Amino acid sequence: MSASVSDWSRQHERGNAILTRLMAWLILRLGWSAGQLLLLPVTAWFIVASGSARAASRGFLGRVLGRRAGFLDVSRHFLSFANVTLDRLFLLTGRTASYRFEVEGLDGLRATLDQGRGCVLLGCHLGSFEALRAIAADCPQRIRPMMYRANAAEPTRLLERLNPALARDIIELGTLGAMLEARESVVRGEIVGMLADRAHRGEKSVAIDFLGSPALFPAGPILLAGALEAPIFLCFAPRIGPRHYRILIEPFHDGMRLRDGGRDAAARIWLKEYVARLEHHCRAHPFNWFNFFDFWSASAKVGDATRQVERLASAAGVRCAQLNDGAAVFDRDADAGTCLGAPAP
Amino acid sequence: MNFDMKATTESELARLIVDTLHLELNPDEIVPDARLFGEGLGLDSIDALELALALSRSYSIELKSDDPDIKEIFSSLRSLAAYVARHRGS
Q1: Cα distance from B13 to chain A (closest Cα, Å)?
Q2: Interface ipTM
Q3: Which residues in chain A have their CB less than 8 angstroms from residue B22's CB?
Q4: Radius of gyration of chain A (CA)
Q5: Domain span at B47
Q6: Which residues of A touch B65 (CB under 8 A)?
Q7: Which of A41-45, A106-110, B3-7 bottoms out in mean pLDDT, i.e. has the lowest?
Q8: What is the pTM of this model?
Q9: What count of Cα atoms within 13 Å lies in the side-chain half-sphere of residue A219?
Q10: Strand, helix or coil at A144?
């Protein structure tokens, strides 16, 4: 019985992979405008098909807007997610010529890099971390995203096909080797990127007040940044219009002695600071928040609803654009218990 | 390496582990053969990184990310001590 179930699931996966590849190819062939046309039915399908993501969107928007969020708000939120997902496909493959980026705070980052010091860049699921690639040309150093690759065989293959150079930059999390690689990378003066907003099962997390009530945030990225002893910058990249992004880079901590006073206390203090900045940017760009699960749920079933949305996105063929987002990769691996901050090596 | 030197390295390292990671235990409570990570002392990969950096500061031992023996070296206090004894000051 189980054999037939897994056969079915394998077939299903293969079917999805083929569909995903076909859609990605079509969109990249036909261009952004054709992608836009596809977007409306796809978004409508998301909205109808994913009740839990709809509820999560309504919950978040209610908090951040300070009023009851209606169907139009939720639709706008989903459409914004679909747009960013579509854009990722273009950003990931370097088709950025028709995009506009307003960059703020790059000088501080560049000054640090110019001194030969590597940095840690903490991103989140607000806007598109991919948009950061647009500034890569102005950044003298390699950006090394830290993420989980295991259990994401097909998306990884797709990513490698879409942008092999990018795939080579990934530092795969979970082992001491990866931690040392991150350290070697900052010592060489490179940028190590991590997503810092999603807590995952089996990972150390801290409850911090976020938009009115406590939510769990991962301690790992902040603590790892502290252990790397490199300056920490925050990055937010909200989409502010069609093919138009704002990229905000903020200095956060000089990275030295972050853990003084003990690890738990440091995680709490600095996560609180981090969450205050996150909250600020969420209020400024509420429809760019892409955590479609109950962020405040104590049981932190992180990613279940998001996974559902990502599955739908995959079926609709735009999932490939999310590959470097790390979210899908992160979430899947959370089940395997190999989280940042989880037992190693 | 004689037996005494090995014991010295082990107790020295136990002290380093406790100090570096702010563990609330006595260094001699670390069982030399017990696993440091996961179910043993319950250390994680960030602790491992901190420990690797402490080894670099205290003994000038630079562990490399592509060292195939990393897992083995960090498996217990004993194996870590043996590694340090082999490489210290070299």
Answers
A1: 18
A2: 0.86
A3: 262-263
A4: 19
A5: 3-87
A6: 177-181, 183-184
A7: B3-7
A8: 0.81
A9: 22
A10: strand
